[in-house]
Each structure stands twice: as structure tokens, then as C-alpha cells.
Recover the amino acids of this structure.
């Protein structure tokens, strides 16, 4: 059924009613009907977060033939896009990928870079608590009453900057539901992955049966109501609401989305039997349930030594998981409404150090944006032959974030009220999205 | 006393208050000084607030009962709720001045210095609680603060010491400036954590000093003139210039023979993004009379804590007020400018003045605040006008810090926590078998305490998590089992003790009736003991347990 049909029917209905009401009422309805026409389909964002500073020069912007290039070759992902040879499966989705080769950001320290890339702000000590991009986006796209939380962070490695993963001044309502918190690296034994990728404490303790649980909750509700009557206010309300949502999650179908064992072995194998791979599979399941923002972390990118072996290995994990994700989203008709973002806290030095490693380098590097709202098959921006400077389309962090928001149909200049009592834009004033990659 | 006996006495003290009360050494009767400045200040607070309520036609809430007071004051002064025995001891005490006496007692407990050091460190160096690379510096500095709170060191002297400590800045590493104390000064070695946590940068240290000690957050003036307050970018850098010695020195050193300025470049700093340099200048536009024997930080410290400085005393008093009420008289406590006026300017003036006149005695200020009528109002709302937290016409509900919550869990459940678990700090790492680590991570928050929100994961942890699961399990629990198995008690006594344990109060007659009948019915499983576990679970999940009211 086309949208037009729906609209016409709606207008007919409105028209029929209008004969009985005043003209101004009719106009009002018409205006609302036009508004409704603008309602966009559900949108989601999956952030693939590369903890440690990924060597983007070896994945997205190779310098083949230059001494900074290293041993890797290029492969064609689209007529106008070549990428690193260790992402062959992903290359098949090249027409959906847009590489931002002009990234030039301000922080080369893990903690500060993480904070900058995930909030768009330099960490100002004890100043304003900025929300992470996941909180900002899920607030815009999410339904506050949804059964599942609107921002889910899968197995994050938060040790560089816990703040960069938080809701900041938006408050805990917009905090991520973290699945598998407290990870140090990617290396969880395959047998433990299913246990890690579950919502913590979602299941009732085994010793407590349903009758007991129900009796307890009845008594608790009375205590909550009594407290809220005597001491009304936001704290009491939030306590009751969190318990209600937690209980709904425990009892609902929604909670089952975290059970990866319902997927076939073939599917699970395709994503890779590792934390990131299964995390991407979970992300797909969550997006199917309309969760607007999911992030999955792949760490161990801090390749100061032996860069090329390590990156090849990481690419294997990344390639399988990301390409499987693209396949599945496409099969389900979700690729048009799901924007996939690949980024880390900074890139790595074009110059190869004596230990065959690459060090921290925020001055010239790449991120990737794919799927919904994105004009793929291209790279925007250009770095110099040696990879050390950006020659075209310098893209600071705020431009990157504005591009992501724009691909998702979010007005990135919209303001939220901050903890210091003044409104703050989703992305700082002056940000310019990279227009050429927007569909 | 043998070890076994001591352990038995400890366990008994958890449950049976009489033993603990008797064991308490009777304090020697000290003659009361003729005029207690805390009483005088409490009366001033009462006078100002009463006048405000009167002018607005506000009816304040009722005065707290002893139970609400004892829980509140334990949480606010030592960072945990009282144990059942402590609560009962206080509630049953018949003396008229027992509230003031309890405050005096709590101020002497080691828990007070520990809690205030932790809270102050989190407030002064928040970056050290979230950034693991900076965490060690926060720990260093917290040790210093702990000693100061234990000795009730005057705040002006503490601040002066922090601002003037001898420092050596390692500027070799472009990524990070490590700061050490000069001359092997062990106390200095703790204090420099403040500088390292601010990355050894004049602009960071300067804005921290301005924010913390003057109540003026100037960060946004770092890059442009302050949009909402009369502070310019140059003023920001002029203030940062007091710490310019942390930057590598250019040119000749001070004292070098020749016609150079006494401070050389130690009091000058470049304005970020320009070619201009500015000289250290106070906010009022005046400069110190530079001399060779005083460095810029010494000049700043003298000005900072000077009685004529209108900001310092008021700011420090306001921060203490905000600790006890959850909201400052100026709030946020560090936003300068006309957009953020004080709710009670005269009260704040008197607080600052009295604080300074009494030698910046923290404990005097705490005594005064906790003796005030406003602090001793219930958090139960009896009139809609009390909803405005800034009128202090009822006590605001406050969220617990993660440590406060877990320490309260420990007190309420009798959990015997090994010291290695206690020493766990929250850096986003979770130690799987350490409940403190799990609570600190799950309950980490940067919200204002009066707006504490509960998350889904927090609710799940409290309902289904292993810690409360164990503590409400008859076989694994510590305190619950003692209450359930205590010979000679009827159900009412058991329920009453669970209430005292979790809420520091006796149940109301209705609550007693409801829960006793649930237990006597055998609860959901026709088992009275399991039903008592259900009651304990309900209490530990209740907002009355999870918040400071």
C-alpha cells in the first residue's frame, strides 16, 4: 500500500467529519494530516566502535606504493571506492559504504579522544556533562514508552572514558542499557559469549518461584505507592517507573531478543563466534525490534607494535561480522532505515615505527558511514600521498557527528537543556555535514 | 577478650542494641562553652528562612521524628545509614539534646573523615572518578583530604596549602604533565595529585581553583567571553596566569641579574588562539605587588582566602549547605552571574561571615546546619508550596552516592566485606565476585542528588542480583538469618527488627499488621521463614531504603 493511498483515505475521513465542524477545525485537521504525512519510517543506528584507535590507513585509505603504505593491497568495493584487501566480504557491500577520508580531529589521547569522538566535545573538567552520541540519537529516535530500552551498548570497553558512554546531562533515562559491561578486550572464550551478551540480572533467581515473586512485587508496589504519596516528586516516580520497565522486560517477549540460541548455527557462524560477531548479531535482532541505537565494540586496535599482523587479524573479525550484518539487514528490508557507523577515537600514524607499529594520529584518518540515508560507493575527502594531512574536505568531529545525524534524519542543531541550565545543541554550532555522502 | 568472644559480641551488637549501648564508653562530661557559635548560627538560619516562609505564606513541613533524623544524619555525616542497634539506641534515648550529641559523636567517627574526603574528592576532581588514567591522582589527593577532615583543619588553610604547595612539573611528555612535590614533602606528595589530575596545565588548575574555591566556573570563557556572566576570555587567562609557572619557562629566570620583571615569565601566559600574552590579575582587576620572594601562586592564595574576598567564604559555606540539603543557596554552586541568583542572599552572607569569623571551622558549620529547623524538617510533604526545593520548607529527597548505597547495604545486611573489596574504586571495571565493584559501576551517576533517577539495570540488580539474593536467602544471609532464628521472638518482633534494620524505624501499626499477617500466613510458600525473607527483600527494594529522606 502506498503512502498516497493512506493519505487520501485519511483526508476523505477528515473531509467527512469536516462537514459537521467549523472551517477552522477542518483546517486544523488538514494541517495535522499533512504533518502525519511527514512521519518518517522507524530509523535506527548501529555504531561499530573501534576501541583503541583503528588503523584506518590500512582499511579505508591505503597508501599503496608509498613507504607509509605497509604491505597491504587495495581491492575494489565500488567503481569509485577501493578499500583494504582484508575486508573482502564487506567490499561486496561497497555501494552502500561511504568513507570519510578527511577526518581530522583534535585529540590523540585515548581518554580524551574517546570523549571527543563520542560527544563532539573536548573533555572540560567538571564543566558540562555532555551526553554520548548514543544518548543524543536515541532520545531523538526513540519511543520513551517502548518495551526495550532505546540505547543498548553491547560489550563496551569503557575504561578509557566511562563518561563518554554515559547520558551526561540528559540523565539516566537516556543511559544505555549495557549488555556485557566491564570488558577489557575482545577475547572472551566462545563458550562464555552467550552468558556475557545477556542483560545482567534479567532472570529471577532460581530459588524464587513465580508465586513468591508476585507476592513480593505486590508488597513492593504498596511500599512504593505509600512513599510516593507522602514524598511526591521525580525521585519516587523514577524509582517506580524503572521497576515497572524492568519487570516488563523480564516478563516480555522483548527480553527474549537477547537469547541468541534461537538463531541457527549457520547464522551464528556467519557472524563469527566471537564477542564482536555475536554482538553484531544481537544488534541486528535489536534493530528488528525497533531499538533506535545499538553500539557494538571491537577493541584491541592500539597497534603500537606489529600493526600489520594484528590489523589483518582484527579485519577478519570485522569483515565477517559487518558483512553478515549488512546481508541480514538487506534481506529484511532494514538497510534503508538503518545507518551503520564505523569509528574509533582516532586513526594511526602513517609513518610506520621501528616495531612495525603505528602510533596515535588524529590529524588525518577515516571513518565510515553506511546504509540508511547514505550515498555509498564513494569516499569523501582526500589525504596527501603520504597520508599525513587532509587535502580535501577536512572533517572535524562535529562534522562527522552532524553527518551521522543527517543520515538519520535528525536535526543536529536541535537544543537540549543541560545540567548548567542552558540549552546545548546536539552538535555544536557551525558543524557542517559531509553533504556528498548523504542520500 | 578472646577473638571468638569479640566476634560474638560484634554479631550480637548488630542485632541486640542493649549490648552495644552498654559497651559504649561514657563520654566525659565537658562543660559547655558559654556561647556555642553553632547555636547562634543555627538561630540565624532559622530567622532568615522563617522570614522567607512568612513572606511567601509558606507553611513548612513538620519536624522530623527521631527515626527520620537519625537515618538522615548518619547518611549525611558518615555516608551510611545507621544499623538497627544504632537507630534504636538513638530513638530510645530520652535526653533533650540528643540530636546535637549524635552529630558530635558522628563527627568524631573515622567514617566521617573518610566519607567527606571521598565526597570532596569526587566534587573537586570528578575526572579522577571516571578516567582511570587519572584515578591514582585522585587517590593521592583523597588521602590528604582525609587527614584534613580528621583533624578538622580550617578550610582557608587547606586551600592555601593546596594553592601554594611546591611543585615540579615534568613537561617532557607532550601527552601528559606529571606533577611532583618539591623537596620530598610527604604531604605535598599527596596534594600534588590535585595538579596532576588537572594534567599540570595552568588553564585546568586555574579554572578548577576558580570553580571550587570561588564558586565561579569560567571554563567557557576559555575560548570566548562568558555568554551569561560578565567574564571575558582575557579574565580567564589572567586567572590561569597565576599558575603559569607550570608551563616551560621562556627567557631569563627571575632573579637573573639585569633589568627584568621580578616574576620574569612566571606570571604571564598566552591567550589560547591568539598571539597575546596576559599577566596574572585578580577578578577585581587588581594585581599583586610582584616581588621576588613570593611566587604568583602565593600571591593568589593570600588574596583567595583574605577576609575581604567576597567569594571564598560564601562559596565554601554554600557547598557545605548543598551537601546537607541537596541544593545550594546558590545553585548550581559554581555558576557565576545574574542568571543564577542566591535564593536567600542575606542568609548566604551571614553563613559566609560566621564561617570566616569562626576560623573556617567545618565542624562548627556542620553543627549549625544540622541544628537548624530546616535541616530537621521531615521530607514528607504536607503542603504543595513545599515542593519548591529552593525554599527549604521541607527536606528534599536525595539520591545516595554509589558508595553510600553500598555502605548502607552492608550496614543493613550484616555483610562482612573483606578490605580488598572495600578498596575497590570505580573505573568502569567490574570485578565479577566483588559486590561493591558491581554496585559502584551500576549506580555511578553524575546527576544532582535531588534529581536522582533509577535505571532499569539498577532495578534489575536490586530485584534479581546476587548480592540481595544472598542477603535475602536464609542459608546465605548474615543478618536476616539472625533475625529469623532468634529464639523467643514472635513474628511482630521479627518484622519490627527487619524494619529497624532497613529503614532505621519501627513499622507503623498498619505496616506491622500487614507484614505480620503475611508472615503468619506463611507467605507464598506456606513457610514463615521464607515469608520473612520476602519482607526483607521488599524493604531493601523500597524507595525508603534506597534514598536519603
Amino acid at each position: 500500500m502506498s503512502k498516497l493511498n493512506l493519505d487520501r483515505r485519511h483526508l476523505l475521513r477528515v473531509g467527512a467529519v469536516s462537514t459537521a465542524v467549523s472551517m477552522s477545525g477542518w483546517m486544523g485537521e488538514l494541517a495535522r494530516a499533512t504533518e502525519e504525512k511527514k512521519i518518517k519510517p522507524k530509523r535506527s543506528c548501529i555504531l561499530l566502535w573501534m576501541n583503541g584507535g583503528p588503523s584506518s590507513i590500512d582499511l579505508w585509505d591505503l597508501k599503496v606504493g608509498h613507504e607509509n603504505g605497509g604491505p597491504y593491497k587495495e581491492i575494489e568495493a565500488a567503481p569509485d571506492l577501493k578499500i583494504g584487501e582484508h575486508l573482502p566480504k564487506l567490499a561486496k557491500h561497497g555501494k552502500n559504504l561511504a568513507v570519510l577520508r578527511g577526518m581530522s580531529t583534535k585529540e590523540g589521547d585515548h581518554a580524551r579522544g574517546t570523549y571527543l569522538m563520542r560527544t563532539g566535545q573536548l573533555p572540560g573538567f567538571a564543566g558540562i556533562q555532555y551526553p554520548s552520541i548514543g544518548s543524543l540519537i536515541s532520545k531523538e529516535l526513540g519511543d520513551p514508552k517502548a518495551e526495550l530500552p532505546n540505547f543498548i551498548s553491547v560489550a563496551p570497553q569503557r575504561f578509557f572514558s566511562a563518561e563518554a558512554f554515559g547520558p551526561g546531562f540528559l540523565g539516566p533515562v537516556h543511559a544505555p542499557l549495557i549488555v556485557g559491561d566491564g570488558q577489557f578486550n575482545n577475547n572472551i572464550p566462545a563458550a562464555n559469549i552467550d552468558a556475557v551478551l545477556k542483560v545482567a540480572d534479567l532472570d529471577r533467581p532460581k530459588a524464587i518461584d513465580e508465586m513468591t515473586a508476585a507476592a513480593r512485587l505486590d508488597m513492593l508496589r504498596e511500599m512504593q505507592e505509600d512513599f510516593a504519596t507522602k514524598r511526591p516528586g521525580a525521585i519516587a516516580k523514577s524509582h517506580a517507573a524503572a521497576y515497572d520497565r524492568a519487570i516488563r522486560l523480564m516478563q516480555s517477549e522483548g527480553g527474549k531478543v537477547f537469547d541468541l540460541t534461537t538463531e541457527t548455527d549457520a547464522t551464528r557462524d556467519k557472524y563469527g563466534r566471537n564477542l564482536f560477531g555475536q554482538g553484531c548479531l544481537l544488534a541486528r535482532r535489536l534493530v528488528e525490534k525497533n531499538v533506535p541505537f545499538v553500539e557494538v565494540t571491537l577493541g584491541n586496535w592500539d597497534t603500537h607494535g606489529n600493526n600489520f599482523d594484528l590489523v589483518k587479524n582484527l579485519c577478519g573479525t570485522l569483515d565477517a561480522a559487518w558483512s553478515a550484518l549488512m546481508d541480514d539487514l538487506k534481506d529484511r528490508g532494514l538497510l534503508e532505515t538503518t545507518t551503520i557507523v564505523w569509528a574509533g577515537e582516532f586513526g594511526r600514524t602513517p609513518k610506520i615505527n621501528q616495531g612495525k607499529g603505528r602510533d596515535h594520529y588524529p590529524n588525518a584518518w577515516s571513518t565510515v558511514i553506511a546504509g540508511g540515508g547514505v550515498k555509498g560507493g564513494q569516499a569523501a575527502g582526500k589525504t596527501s600521498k603520504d597520508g599525513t594531512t587532509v587535502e580535501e574536505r577536512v572533517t572535524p568531529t562535529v562534522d562527522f557527528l552532524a553527518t551521522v545525524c543527517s543520515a538519520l534524519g535528525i536535526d543536529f542543531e536541535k537544543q537540549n537543556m543541560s545540567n548548567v541550565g542552558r540549552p546545548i545543541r546536539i552538535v555544536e554550532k557551525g558543524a557542517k555535514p559531509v553533504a556528498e555522502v548523504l542520500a | 577478650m578472646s577473638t571468638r568472644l569479640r566476634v560474638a559480641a560484634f554479631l550480637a551488637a548488630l542485632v541486640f542494641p542493649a549490648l552495644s549501648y552498654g559497651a559504649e564508653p561514657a563520654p566525659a562530661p565537658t562543660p559547655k562553652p558559654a556561647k556555642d557559635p553553632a547555636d547562634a548560627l543555627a538561630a540565624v538560619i532559622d530567622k532568615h528562612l522563617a522570614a522567607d516562609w512568612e513572606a511567601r505564606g509558606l507553611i513548612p513541613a513538620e519536624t522530623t521524628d527521631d527515626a527520620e533524623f537519625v537515618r538522615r544524619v548518619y547518611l549525611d555525616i558518615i555516608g551510611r545509614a545507621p544499623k538497627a542497634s544504632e537507630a534504636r539506641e538513638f530513638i530510645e534515648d530520652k535526653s533533650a539534646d540528643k540530636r546535637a550529641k549524635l552529630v558530635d559523636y558522628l563527627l568524631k567517627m573515622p567514617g566521617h573523615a573518610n566519607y567527606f574526603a571521598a565526597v570532596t574528592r569526587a566534587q573537586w576532581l570528578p575526572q579522577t572518578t571516571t578516567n582511570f588514567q587519572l584515578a591514582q591522582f585522585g587517590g593521592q589527593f583523597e588521602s590528604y583530604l582525609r587527614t584534613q577532615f580528621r583533624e578538622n583543619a580550617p578550610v582557608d588553610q587547606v586551600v592555601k596549602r593546596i594553592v601554594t604547595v611546591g611543585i615540579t612539573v615534568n613537561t617532557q611528555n607532550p601527552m601528559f604533565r606529571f606533577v611532583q612535590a618539591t623537596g620530598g614533602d610527604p604531604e605535598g606528595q599527596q596534594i600534588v595529585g590535585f595538579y596532576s589530575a588537572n594534567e599540570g596545565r595552568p588553564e585546568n588548575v586555574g579554572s578548577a581553583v576558580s570553580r571550587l574555591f570561588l564558586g565561579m566556573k569560567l571554563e567557557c570563557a576559555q575560548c570566548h567571553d562568558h555568554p551569561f556572566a560578565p567574564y571575558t576570555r582575557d579574565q580567564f587567562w589572567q586567572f590561569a596566569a597565576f599558575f603559569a609557572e607550570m608551563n616551560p619557562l621562556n627567557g631569563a629566570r627571575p632573579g637573573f641579574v639585569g633589568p627584568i620583571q621580578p616574576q620574569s615569565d612566571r606570571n604571564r601566559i598566552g591567550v589560547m588562539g591568539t598571539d597575546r600574552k596576559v599577566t596574572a590579575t585578580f577578578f577585581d582587576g587588581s594585581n599583586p605587588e610582584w616581588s621576588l620572594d613570593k611566587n604568583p601562586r602565593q600571591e593568589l592564595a593570600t588574596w583567595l582566602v583574605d577576609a575581604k574576598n567576597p567569594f571564598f567564604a560564601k562559596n565554601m559555606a554554600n557547598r557545605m549547605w548543598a551537601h546537607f540539603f541537596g541544593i545550594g543557596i546558590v545553585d548550581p554552586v559554581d555558576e557565576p552571574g545574574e542568571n543564577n541568583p542566591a535564593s536567600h542572599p542575606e542568609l548566604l552572607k551571614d553563613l559566609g561571615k560566621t564561617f570566616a569569623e569562626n576560623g573556617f571551622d567545618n565542624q562548627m558549620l556542620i553543627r549549625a546546619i544540622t541544628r537548624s529547623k530546616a535541616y530537621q524538617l521531615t521530607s514528607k510533604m504536607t503542603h504543595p508550596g513545599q515542593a519548591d526545593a529552593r525554599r527549604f520548607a521541607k527536606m528534599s529527597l536525595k539520591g545516595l552516592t554509589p558508595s553510600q548505597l553500598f555502605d548502607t547495604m552492608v550496614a543493613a545486611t550484616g555483610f562482612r566485606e573483606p578490605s580488598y573489596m572495600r578498596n575497590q574504586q570505580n573505573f568502569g571495571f567490574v570485578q565479577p565476585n566483588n559486590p561493591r565493584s558491581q554496585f559502584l559501576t551500576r549506580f555511578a551517576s553524575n546527576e544532582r542528588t535531588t534529581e536522582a533517577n533509577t535505571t532499569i539495570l539498577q532495578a534489575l540488580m536490586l530485584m534479581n542480583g546476587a548480592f540481595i539474593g544472598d542477603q535475602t536467602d536464609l542459608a546465605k544471609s548474615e543478618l536476616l538469618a539472625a533475625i529469623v532464628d532468634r529464639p523467643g521472638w514472635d513474628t511482630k518482633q521479627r518484622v519490627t527488627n527487619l524494619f529497624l534494620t532497613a529503614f532505621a524505624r519501627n513499622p507503623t501499626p498498619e505496616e506491622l499488621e500487614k507484614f505480620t499477617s503475611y508472615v503468619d500466613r506463611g507467605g507464598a510458600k506456606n513457610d514463615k521463614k521464607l515469608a520473612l525473607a520476602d519482607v526483607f527483600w521488599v524493604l531493601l527494594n523500597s524507595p525508603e531504603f534506597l534514598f536519603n529522606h
User: Anything to note?
Assistant: Chain A has a mean pLDDT of 88.
